[in-house]
Automatic annotation (TrEMBL):
<feature type="transmembrane region" description="Helical">
    <location>
        <begin position="84"/>
        <end position="102"/>
    </location>
</feature>
<feature type="transmembrane region" description="Helical">
    <location>
        <begin position="21"/>
        <end position="45"/>
    </location>
</feature>
<keyword id="KW-0472">Membrane</keyword>
<keyword id="KW-1133">Transmembrane helix</keyword>
<protein>
    <recommendedName>
        <fullName>DUF4383 domain-containing protein</fullName>
    </recommendedName>
</protein>
<feature type="transmembrane region" description="Helical">
    <location>
        <begin position="114"/>
        <end position="134"/>
    </location>
</feature>
<dbReference type="Pfam" id="PF14325">
    <property type="entry name" value="DUF4383"/>
</dbReference>
<keyword id="KW-0812">Transmembrane</keyword>
<feature type="transmembrane region" description="Helical">
    <location>
        <begin position="57"/>
        <end position="77"/>
    </location>
</feature>
Length: 173
């Protein structure tokens, strides 16, 4: 099923979803490319500093792959970009917790340190928030495409309400 057929375009939402995915993707791409350019050891657990964070070759490749997913989502846009950013943001937060547990162990294959964990949490929340913008809330406006999808009968009721009120007003005169 094509999202564009099911939901009308909302340019404000699409801009936020695309910009969030694209900007975060570019940041991760830059980090990954800097790590690969430094010729870091691929599986080094101690890591070397790149842009203020600890990194190794594997983390650089993972960063580039994640950036590619986010940038593809930004290019596609719409619900796809929103879904991708929510999922990637959640994975970043989960990665922060997992790597926090693996600090100072031989299983720390991504060479994480505390600044990496903090970055993972912050970046995950930023990415997920960009994806949830205008999609997840208790008070979405009635013209929001996600609200209309969750309340399919309400749109017909809203269209009938002014006519019904006009009919009632016409009878009271």
């Amino acid at each position: 099923m094509d999202f564009r057929d099911e939901f009308p375009a909302d340019r404000r939402l699409a801009r936020v979803h695309r910009a969030g995915a694209g900007l975060c993707g570019v940041v991760l791409l830059a980090f990954g490319c800097l790590g690969l350019a430094d010729g870091l050891a691929f599986f080094g657990t101690t890591g070397e500093r790149v842009a203020g964070l600890s990194s190794n070759g594997l983390l650089s490749v993972v960063s580039i792959a994640t950036a590619a997913v986010l940038i593809v989502g930004a290019v596609i846009g719409g619900r796809t970009a929103s879904t991708i950013t929510i999922a990637v943001g959640g994975l970043f937060v989960l990665s922060g917790f997992v790597n926090l547990a693996l600090l100072d162990s031989g299983a720390n294959v991504l060479a994480f340190r505390i600044p990496n964990v903090v970055f993972s949490f912050v970046m995950g929340l930023v990415i997920a928030t960009c994806g949830m913008y205008g999609r997840v809330s208790g008070k979405l406006p009635f013209d929001n495409p996600y609200w209309r999808h969750r309340h399919p009968g309400a749109q017909q009721q809203q269209a009938a309400a002014p006519a019904a009120r006009a009919g009632i007003a016409g009878r009271t005169r």
